[in-house]
UniProtKB/TrEMBL annotation:
Protein's name according to its UniProt entry: 6-phospho-beta-glucosidase
NCBIfam families for the chain: PRK09593.1, PRK09852.1
Keyword terms of this UniProt record: Glycosidase, Hydrolase
Domain of life (superkingdom): Bacteria
Record-linked Pfam families: Glyco_hydro_1 (PF00232)
Coiled coil regions, renumbered to chain: none
Organism field: Streptococcus oricebi
Active site: 369
Membership in a protein family: Belongs to the glycosyl hydrolase 1 family.
InterPro entries listed in its UniProt record: GH (IPR017853), GH_1_N_CS (IPR033132), Glyco_hydro_1 (IPR001360), Glyco_hydro_1_AS (IPR018120)
Length: 469
């Protein structure tokens, strides 16, 4: 492996930080995503969080209190030998309502200390600027990304981050899994819909404003420090046709395009023809201006980051069982085992996905999420998570093959939820990804004690060897 390969782990403020009212932080999306049945409807934008019962439980308000434990957590990452740590900044900790002219100094000071702590151990910070997270005020008052004004609010936030961390942070990711906007619009982009609204048109309008915001952030970042590396981020996982029936193959191509659409714009700098035709056929009346197109063209990303949990599968006849996986609808692939949460396990699919992305964009990739959500059992104070080690080993092997055999250029690999955190889709604590166990249950009880799992030592050895097994 290249000597400078960025091995590490990834989390996000919305699922780990907690401290929701510390350091003058303002309320954000994640604070109003409840645990339980209604979570999905809120994430989809179908149920307004203001209509939730008063006794709802919001697990991310405390999460694993990474906010209060970051020194201890970073010390554990350093013990594993992390070269990089991907985390996100909570927008409402910097701008509590999103509208302030000046940043919240207490929030900024927190991240200054946080980043200083990483650098103390020579851990490269990989910063996600917006990970399913924004001030609630921007949603309730402005309608979130359906409103062009969001671009300026976002840029003001970016400017503060870029200037403050000009000499400490090199890698920036503008939006986590930007394509999630299409699938979980409230969680992904703060979108809610009115009765009778053209939901698809609203989503593409919001997508356009996010794409422009991302390109303008890239422009600004490069002005502030030409060495900054800016990345887009895709919830990846190639779509397989269920059979070689041409209709299945066609459907798979269409589904892949729904997700590639975002990266096509961010990496190539223009709307692809298939998207323009789609907008035309749908009769959309989108606010896309000449100056937007110019900025998209001139300020493409430096690298493409991605999450990979599973491949997907589609049958054109819509028949058969549904398959699980990271949010997107998929048909069940009979050739694959699944996790306890029904997500297919497909290491070769990872190699296929990496090759597809690299062939398509020819820009360095960065794997910023991959991992297995599983229940762990604490026996005599220890967790023997061989199932997680097997998952990670298989996927890392596939990634190495993509690099060595296929020549795919990959900057690094940060395993998702390297420390247990709240699941984004279910709000559960029991869906654990970590190499570090956190003593906390789904109902919020627990001491928050950190305990290294067997995978902790396995990953530490892998990083030390800078190779697999
Ligand atoms: C990705 C997200 O979609 O998947 C993470 O970027 C999320 O925020 C991860 O946690 C795993 O999904 P889940 O629902 O198992 O937490």
């Amino acid at each position: 492996m290249p000597k400078n390969f960025l091995w590490g782990g990834a989390t996000a403020a919305n699922q780990s930080e907690g401290g929701w009212q510390e350091s003058n932080r303002g309320p954000a999306i994640v604070d109003v995503l409840p645990h339980g049945q209604e979570r999905l409807r809120v994430m989809l934008g179908e149920l307004d969080y203001r209509d939730l019962p008063d006794d709802s439980y919001y697990p991310a308000r405390e999460a694993i209190d990474h906010f209060g434990h970051y020194k201890e957590d970073i010390a554990l990452f350093a013990q594993m030998g992390f070269k990089a740590y991907r985390f996100s900044i909570s927008w409402s900790r910097i701008f509590p309502t999103g509208e302030e002219k000046e940043p919240n100094q207490a929030g900024l000071a927190y991240y200054q200390d946080f980043i200083k702590e990483l650098l103390k151990y020579n851990i490269e910070p990989i910063v996600t600027i917006c990970h399913f997270d924004m001030p609630l005020n921007l949603i309730d008052k402005y309608g979130s990304w359906k409103n062009r004004q969001l671009i300026d609010f976002y840029l003001r936030y970016c400017q503060v981050l870029f200037e403050t961390f000009k000499d400490q942070v090199k890698y920036w990711i503008t939006f986590n899994e930007i394509n999630m906007l299409m699938h979980l619009p409230f969680m992904g982009a703060g979108l809610r819909f009115e009765e009778g609204e053209n939901v698809l048109e609203s989503k593409y309008q919001a997508a356009h404003y996010e794409l422009v915001a991302s390109a303008r952030a890239t422009q600004l970042a490069h002005q502030i420090n030409p060495d900054f590396q800016l990345g887009c981020m895709l919830a990846a996982g190639s779509v397989y046709p269920y059979s070689c029936k041409p209709q299945d193959v066609w459907q798979a191509l269409q589904m892949d395009r729904e997700n590639y659409f975002f990266i096509d714009v961010q990496a190539r700098g223009a709307y692809p023809n298939y998207a323009l035709k789609f907008f035309e056929k749908q009769g959309f009346n989108l606010d896309i201006r000449e100056e937007d197109l110019q900025v998209l063209k001139e300020h493409t990303v430096d690298f493409i980051s991605l999450s990979y949990y599973n491949s997907r599968c589609v049958r054109s006849d819509g028949a058969g069982e549904a398959g699980g996986g990271n949010v997107f609808a998929s048909a069940k692939n009979p050739y694959l085992e699944v996790s306890e949460w029904g997500w297919p396990i497909d290491p070769l699919g990872f190699r296929i996905t990496l090759n597809n992305l690299y062939d398509r964009y020819q820009k360095p990739l960065f794997v910023v999420e991959n991992g297995l959500g599983a229940r762990d059992e604490l026996v005599d104070g220890q967790i023997e998570d061989d199932y997680r080690i097997n998952y990670l080993a298989g996927h890392i092997q596939a990634m190495l093959e993509a690099m060595e055999e296929d020549g795919v250029d990959i900057l690094g690999y940060t395993a998702w939820g390297c420390i247990d955190l709240i699941s984004a889709t279910t709000g559960e604590m029991s869906k654990r990804y970590g190499m570090i166990y956190v003593d906390k249950a789904d109902d919020g009880s627990g001491s928050l004690k950190r305990i290294p799992k067997k995978s902790f030592y396995w990953y530490r050895d892998l990083i030390e060897k800078n190779s697999h097994i």
